[in-house]
Amino acid sequence: MKFIKDAIRTVPDYPKKGIMFRDITTAIKNPKVMKKMIDYIVEEFKDEKIDYVAGIESRGFIFGMPVAYSLGCGFVPIRKPNKLPAETYSVEYELEYGKDKIEMHKDAIEKGKRVLVIDDLLATGGTAAAACELVQKAGVLAGLAFVIELTELNGREKLPKGVKTVSLAKY
């Protein structure tokens, strides 16, 4: 995964002093790196009988669609509030300073279908844990995939135990 990690730009002091921002835009503009990222996730989950890939808004969409296409399954968007037109499930979660919410259509996943949740970043784990809760309202959480994991923030601790979780680049 060094190939991928080397393609991710680090921007010091963004968005505030002391933060080392991991910028995926330098990786996804390179077709070889992008292919390697998608192929790696597909390879990891090809035998898991995935019915849907659920991408967390918005960068989870970047990776989720090509993974769903490659696995031959559907794609389900997990969105910020008031972005989906039909009836939704919603889950509120804690942020460092406040709360946020994500939503998914109630009819997006049929009961018992296997779902892979994808996002670009696993940091504190709040958004990913909320996405897992949404998926589990209807389907079976079959796995989680992240491009970047900030290990020092211990986000994995908030995720469901026993679920296959893959990160391409760990910092």
Explain what the structure shows.
This protein has helices spanning 2-7, 25-28, 31-45, 59-71, 126-136; strands at 9-12, 20-23, 52-56, 74-78, 88-95, 98-105, 114-122, 140-149, 165-170. With 171 residues, it is α/β, with parallel strands linked by helices.
Keywords summarizing the entry:
171 residues; five-stranded parallel sheet; two-stranded antiparallel ribbon; globular
List the helices and strands and how they pair.
Elements: H1 2-7, E1 9-12, E2 20-23, H2 25-28, H3 31-45, E3 52-56, H4 59-71, E4 74-78, E5 88-95, E6 98-105, E7 114-122, H5 126-136, E8 140-149, E9 165-170
Helix pairs in contact: 3-4
Beta-strand percentage range? 25-35%
The strand count comes to 9
Would you tell me the overall average pLDDT? 96
From N to C, what is the helix and strand string?
Answer: HEEHHEHEEEEHEE
* Oligomeric state as shown: single chain
Strand order of the largest sheet: 4-3-7-8-9
Shape, principal axes of CA atoms: globular
Instruction: State the major sheet.
Output: 5 strands, parallel
**Structural classification:** alpha/beta
Measured on Cα atoms, how large is the radius of gyration? Answer: 15 Å
Helical residue percent band:
25-40%
Low-confidence stretches: none
Distance between the termini: 12 Å
> What is the count of DSSP helices, taking H or I runs of 4+ residues?
5
